[in-house]
Design goal:
Layout lengths: L6 E6 L7 H14 L4 E6 L1 H4 L6 H18 L7 E4 L5 H10 L4 H5 L2 H7 L8 H15 L5 E3 L5 H17 L1 H6 L11 E3 L34 H10 L18 H14 L3 H8 L4 H27 L2 H30 L5
Parallel strand pairs: 1-2, 2-3, 4-5
Helix pairs in contact: 3-13, 4-7, 4-14, 7-8, 10-13, 11-12, 11-13
The structure holds tryptophanyl-5'AMP (TYM).
Length: 345
């Protein structure tokens, strides 16, 4: 691994309703990582169209994710923020990887099964090939670290399988062309902390998601204080007071979720949160959780709204980021074409 420059890549789909799970599982971590790494954060619009999107809403949502990145604290001058469709190398590498990945590998992807549901015959080919495009996103920059929520773990394993198969299928060629033993790195997923899988506020066994029909299932990054308070007040819990040790949360999904959310927002461990609230009733804990959520999310929501008034600025961030992203991906793709054996002028 040492041979590859350390570089972080991650992406968020512009499909509306950015929520607390996206923030705690991913974007908050993106912000922390920028202190230590060169980072590339992508609004993955090509992924979004794997299910039908209204074009006007898609444009709005691309800008909104960009605004969220900036409002949460990613510095667009230091780090690269861009939208995927402006860097054609993603789609090109995805095609090459379509010819590397095996159908059997994709058939194992649980997210496709969930998203396609019963009507699998009618799902787009893009939805099926989605994880291959994800591998291309990461490897077009030879990124070494990818921060994501728990739900993306299987996709990152696939990206490693694709990198490995490319490295071994072309190993002679990679060596002959002077790239050393391997061309693509084995990317490390970064999945850690107390909120890698934030659950629905209505059902502790279901993931908090953009597409849940009930808005009460999630806290959106654009929710105002009253909405946050109301959603937390209505969040499902059990009737026991909070326990003193983490083990007791294993059989209490809703309690576990709220404690995890509090811990992540407060930058504490769940154990530390339980030490603070052991024996407390949920009414009390929910009040504290509301205050903390409003304190942390309120400024993000208002900054997002402010930024969304200035679409010129947002679009200039994306244009600038895309040019910088292209400058990294273009020479990598040039080498890939050479390795594969394409004639290029
Ligand atoms: P997306 O847009 O569904 O979600 C963006 C990020 O938020 C995380 N996340 C969660 N984390 C904790 N709890 C939850 N309930 C929750 N819901 C979502 C996701 O894990 C993700 O990190 N396929 C990706 C986007 C993508 C990507 C990439 C990521 C495309 N190319 C390359 C990394 C690298 C997705 O649909 O994320």
């Amino acid at each position: 691994m040492a041979r590859f420059k350390e570089r972080v890549f991650s992406g968020v789909q512009p499909t509306g309703n950015l929520h607390l799970g996206n923030y705690l599982g991913a974007i908050k971590r993106f912000v922390e990582l920028q202190e230590k790494y060169e980072c590339i954060y992508c609004v993955v619009d090509l992924h979004a169209i794997t299910v039908a999107q209204d074009p006007v809403e898609l444009t709005h949502n691309i800008r909104e994710v960009t605004a969220a990145f900036i409002a949460c604290g990613i510095d667009p001058k230091k780090q690269i923020i861009f939208n995927q469709s402006q860097v054609q190398e993603h789609a090109e590498l995805a095609w090459i990887f379509n010819c590397i990945a095996r159908i059997g590998w994709l058939n194992r992807m649980t997210q496709f099964k969930e998203k396609a549901g019963k009507d699998r015959e009618n799902a787009s080919i893009g939805l099926y090939a989605y994880p291959v495009l994800m591998a291309a996103d990461i490897l077009a920059y030879r990124a070494t670290h990818v921060p994501v929520g728990e739900d993306q773990k299987q996709h990152l394993e696939l990206a490693r399988d694709i990198a490995q198969k490319f490295n071994s299928d072309f190993s002679e060629r990679i060596k002959a062309l002077g790239h050393g033993e391997t061309f693509f790195p084995m990317t490390e997923p970064l999945i850690s902390g107390p909120a890698t899988r934030v659950m629905s506020l209505r059902d502790g066994t279901k993931k908090m998601s953009k597409s849940d029909a009930s808005d009460y299932s999630r806290i959106n990054l654009t929710d105002v204080a009253d909405e946050i308070a109301q959603k937390i007040r209505k969040a499902r819990t059990d009737s026991e007071p909070l326990p003193s040790d983490e083990k007791a949360l294993e059989v209490r999904a809703e309690a576990d979720n709220l404690v995890g959310i509090y811990a992540a927002l407060a930058n504490k461990t769940k154990t530390a949160v339980l030490a603070q609230f052991a024996g407390a009733q949920f009414s009390k804990f929910k009040e504290e959780l509301t205050a903390l959520s409003v304190e942390k999310l309120g400024p993000i929501g208002s900054e997002m709204k402010r930024l969304m008034q200035d679409t010129k600025y947002i679009d200039s961030v994306l244009a600038n980021g895309s040019a910088r992203a292209r400058a990294i991906a273009a020479p990598i793709l040039k080498s890939v074409r050479e390795i594969v054996g394409f004639v290029q002028s």
